[in-house]
Amino acid sequence: MTKHKTSQPNIVSRPPIVVIMGHIDHGKSTLLDYIRKTNVVDGEAGGITQHLSAYCVEHTTKEGAKKNITFLDTPGHEAFQKMRFRGADVADIAILIVSAEDGVKPQTKEALTCILKAKIPYIVAINKIDKPGANLVRTQSSLIENEIYIEGMGGDISWTQISAKVGTGVDELLDLVLLTAELAEFKTDANAGGSGTVIEGKLDGKRGTTATLMIKDGSVLSGTFVVSGTSYAPVRIMEDWSGKNIKEAHAGEPIGIVGWNEVPKIGEAFITVGSKKEAEVITQKNKLATPKIVEAESDLPTIPLLIKADVLGTIDAIVHELEKWKSDRMVVKVIGTGVGTISSNDVQNVSATKDAIIVGFNVKPDRSAIDLAERLGVEIETFDIIYKLSEWLETALKARTPMKEEEVITGKAKILKHFSTQKNAHVLGGRLEEGNLALGQHVRITRRDIELGRGVLKNLQQQKSNVKNISEGEFGMQLDSKVEIAPGDYIEAFNIITT
User: What sign does the dihedral 124-130-135-136 (CA atoms) show?
Assistant: First the structure.
């Protein structure tokens, strides 16, 4: 086999890598579905795309030329923000899809932020023009109001109107993509070793450790090794986006590689080398160079979570949900993450940690894990829709949050006279200065704003009659307290509120 490093450069054009971004129900998956003539939407739990995937399509331009385009699909739910940022970083061109019924929505703006941060050109696709509620003028105005300046409306951002459902305008959209790619001139050295980005990784129970890579430059050939961070794999089992076994792959193409020593990190760069020895040397250097993260200690109660999911990208999303949950009373600590089925080892590992919970997403516990969890009292919760997980986290974490007692002051009175003391019972005369007092309330006793101690109102009198409340004027009281009380001292009555 010819090694890349001895080959002469061979500079050629490569297919553009395109990411479709936008609000959760504006038609990203429907558009991809139409383009590649397969169905993703129906197969997704809750109708939400929850993995980052990549697909290659061939488009015939209006001039009759056949050109390849690679598409990334990024999940729409807000929790998958990191995956969308990653998608925009990997892509060359973005399609910002906007519904002609709804206009710009919060996730449209978030998607635009991803695109602008990645500094890639983008095209606006106004979708759902076949719907009865479609209003092109209103949608265009919505875009302008959100500083998305399209052509013909004071800007230079290309746009087109489409119906992803029936295919209207889709060919024109793909022509725009290829025109944008032509202007950008995406080139690659076909003879160079392949390099690019890891876009997904998972531990498959049957096949072992697999990862999806997007090649940005060069070619990946059978017989070489791919290296990413502290992970490496031989290029023996390499598949194209459709799952077909291939011997070589080129820039602009997504590939699946099976047989990694460990699941590579999503978003990490990868390179190819000629031998296992080279791969091991690089991963060892990367391992030594990886900084150790020291977590800040907290005195707050901690809820430990072990997260298991089908793919690494989903773990990112779950961690993102956890980051949104803030409390001054407790800390949520991720004690471990992993891809694959929840096993008895997972249960065993968390059983020694008080109150630990195992959270699974798109994975289930095996029988031995269920039995062991019941015996050891370990809680396991599994989900297949991200917002269901979000709802459960909110409820479960609140239920485990320690209750907090807060003292709410209801009234303040000045001690005018000390009549007598018997054991800890003080008979006093006072005048209410703020709020009100109630029989049985606890009070703080202060002298010159310094707390002397506490007591309880055992009796209240006003106009020689026993009363339950004092809301104004002078009054008599019996105050139970170990503190020596003198005229000029103050009492502050308070209620204890549990929140």
Answer: positive
